[in-house]
Design goal:
single chain; 419 residues; mainly alpha; CBS-domain; three-stranded mixed beta sheet; 19 helices; 8 strands; elongated
Length: 419
């Protein structure tokens, strides 16, 4: 994680707060050319979105599960201010251009950086990106949990957050809009404020969705799309609400729209794959996961999903390759071993399955799924006493585990396990 020049960071945060909800029109002149960037800020000021007490963050929610593949583009340090302005205009004013050198991000340029150059009396049109760049940003790994990153953001209020994978390649951008949406999803939202912009409507939809009011949320997302049909985030949120109502086909159509707007949106491709999986269309799910991995080949969650689908169609060899690659990259080790064991179990390779479940338990002694499935496999191998010990250990760890209680009750009443 990189944080540079906190004094400048705090100054910019104050400046951004002052121009909250203002339309700043920046006009950049060059011979016979005029570039107009409409900078409509959507900033979370500490006073407006102050948390109402402690927030219980979901530690299982990772950055790469959020909409982080929009609101940015990548450029080289040699690009001119004119070219950067054109990129910012394409992003609609809310995004940033990340500056990359030798495949590593070295800084960013937002409309504010262009505005600062103009306000200093200089003309940014012919300047190089390297002369405009802001190097005050934070890098976070894509599998970081919200429980970890929200305090970092709240305490330092960084200008930009670049999301990287384990190979230090940029895979997304966590914007202020993203932060605002996360807060709304957690109930930190002032519903007395009337929505004025597409972003406002989307944020209200998120707040409503978090309370289970999906029909109202959908109407908000549709209002946002009506005003700004090419905004990925609204389509993403609409898809998720439709999915929550089991309208899978409609949700898939929304993700198709997202991908048509941004072919690099691996999150949408992964979500689309998950919906195909729910519909038992495994081959379509596999296709989506492969497309997602072509964009972000080190995304562990997508690799796990692909491995599961290969297992579901009986392609054990390809499934194991996915899990082994996921283990090599790193991630939730217990989860990967557990899923790998499930594929071996499905293929009736019980001894290999037991090894995987043991590795999962070694990684996390309280991993209930691995302990239960190990018992099931031991039962299939005719090792009922060893299976019995697994279920007893599971009850010891969690007396409320219904599956283990049912297994033990059936063994007591019938001298055999009924699953």
């Amino acid at each position: 994680m990189i944080i540079i020049d906190l004094k400048e960071q705090r100054f910019n945060s104050l400046l951004l707060t002052w121009i909250y909800k203002l339309n700043v029109i920046l006009i950049i002149f060059k011979i016979r050319k005029i570039y107009i960037i409409q900078y409509h800020t959507s900033i979370i000021t500490p006073s407006k979105y102050k948390a109402k007490g402690e927030i219980d963050l979901d530690k299982n929610t990772r950055i790469n599960e959020l909409d982080i593949t929009d609101e940015f583009s990548i450029a080289s340090p040699d690009m001119t201010g004119e070219q950067i302005a054109a990129e910012l205009k394409k992003l609609g004013g809310d995004g940033v251009v990340l500056i990359s050198q030798k495949n590593e991000i070295i800084g960013f340029i937002s409309p504010l950086e262009i505005l600062n150059i103009v306000s200093s009396g200089k003309n940014p049109v012919d300047m190089k990106a390297s002369e405009i760049i802001n190097t005050d940003y934070v890098e976070l790994l894509e599998d970081e949990s919200l429980g970890h990153i929200i305090p970092v953001i709240a305490n330092s209020y960084p200008n930009a957050i670049v999301v990287i994978n384990s190979g230090r390649h940029c895979v997304g951008f966590f914007s202020r809009n993203d932060y605002r949406e996360v807060m709304a999803a957690m109930g930190v939202y002032d519903d007395s404020i009337s929505p004025q912009t597409p972003d406002d409507w989307r944020t209200r939809g998120i707040a409503l969705s978090s309370k289970g009011e999906r029909e109202e949320a959908i109407r908000c997302y549709e209002k946002s799309i009506e005003s700004y049909p090419d905004k990925e985030k609204a389509w993403n949120k609409l898809a998720k609400s439709l999915e929550g109502m089991d309208r899978f086909k409609d949700a898939i159509m929304c993700y198709d729209k997202v991908v048509s707007l941004n072919k690099g949106n691996y999150v949408a491709l992964t979500k689309k794959g998950e919906l195909h999986s729910k519909q038992k269309t495994q081959n379509l799910a596999i296709h989506c996961y492969k497309l997602a991995l072509s964009v972000n080949p080190k995304n562990v969650n997508t690799l796990i999903n692909l491995g599961i689908e290969y297992g579901n169609i009986g392609n054990t060899e390809e499934a194991i390759k996915c899990f082994e690659l996921a283990l090599e990259i790193g991630g939730e080790t217990a989860e990967i071993w557990y899923r790998k064991g499930g594929v071996y179990s499905h293929d009736k390779q019980y001894s290999e399955a037991i090894k995987c479940y043991d590795n999962a338990i070694d990684s996390d002694v309280y991993y209930e799924g691995a302990l239960f499935d190990k018992g099931v496999v031991l039962n299939k191998m005719g090792k009922d006493q060893e299976a019995l010990e697994c279920f007893k250990e599971l009850i010891k760890n969690n007396p409320n585990n219904e599956n283990a209680k049912r297994a033990l009750d059936s063994y007591r009443d019938n001298s055999k396990f009924l699953f």
